[in-house]
Amino acid sequence: MRAARASGVIAIVAGGVGFATSCGMRARHGISLLETVVAAGLLATVLTGIVPLATVAVTAASRARAQVLAEQLARQRVEQLEALTHMRTGAGVISDVDTRLDGPDFVSGGTGLTPAGVSTLDADTAAWCDLLDEHGTALGACDAASPGARFARRWAVQAMDDVDGCVRLWAEVRAMPPRRGLVAAQAGAVRCAWSAVRP
């Protein structure tokens, strides 16, 4: 059974009733090409603003991580220097002046707590500098080339003239190659000889 009116208001089509507009257009299903283009344009506009922000955030997080690691590595070296023997006995002050700290393992043949002044912070000086990778793992002395090195760590020991038996300890860590936004991390302490003799 098929009935249709010229105005197109109601149409009866084989077993059902369908509705049409008075202009003769059928009901809409889906989205048009124009709507898709507009949505894609809006998405592109939003992403154009978000992607640079995400890039800046990732770069800032990477720099912050490197800075925190550099500070930890500087403090670590000062703590290692503080752990070396430095004590007062009846015969005077005894200090570890033989431990080598510029390699992955601490062995003899180094400088230990030998007061050398702060000039060792100015340049890569043998036995006063080591290289570290991006995770802070020691790679070896600064005088050996290491392609995986991301940090150079220097340290210094200076005798305190005004206080007998005390030394100043410094450590400094710099990024390799120097990176914009990453300053050198520094740490310091004063180590005085403890007494092994009871008063």
Stretches with pLDDT under 50, minimum 5 residues? 1-22
Q: Tell the overall outline.
A: elongated
- Strand order, biggest sheet? 9-8-10-11-12
The percent range for helix content is: 25-40%
For this entry, what is the oligomeric state of its chains? single chain
Number of separate domains: 2
Tell me about the biggest sheet? 5 strands, antiparallel
How many angstroms does the end-to-end distance come to?
121 Å
Given the helix and strand composition, which structural class is it? Answer: alpha+beta
Order of secondary-structure elements: EEEHEEEEEEEEEE
Description:
The structure is a single chain. It contains 1 helix and 13 strands. With 199 residues, the chain is an alpha+beta fold. It has 2 domains: 28 residues, no CATH class; 145 residues, no CATH class. It has a 5-stranded antiparallel sheet, with helices on one face. The longest helix has 51 residues. The N and C termini lie far apart (121 Å). The N terminus is likely disordered.
Which features does this protein show?
1 helix; 30% strand; 5-stranded antiparallel sheet; 3-stranded antiparallel sheet; 199 residues; alpha+beta; elongated
Q: TL;DR of this structure?
A:
The chain is α+β, with helices and mostly antiparallel strands and 199 residues long.
Describe the protein's topology.
Elements: E1 2-4, E2 10-13, E3 16-19, H1 33-83, E4 86-89, E5 92-95, E6 99-100, E7 107-108, E8 129-132, E9 138-141, E10 151-159, E11 166-175, E12 185-192, E13 194-195
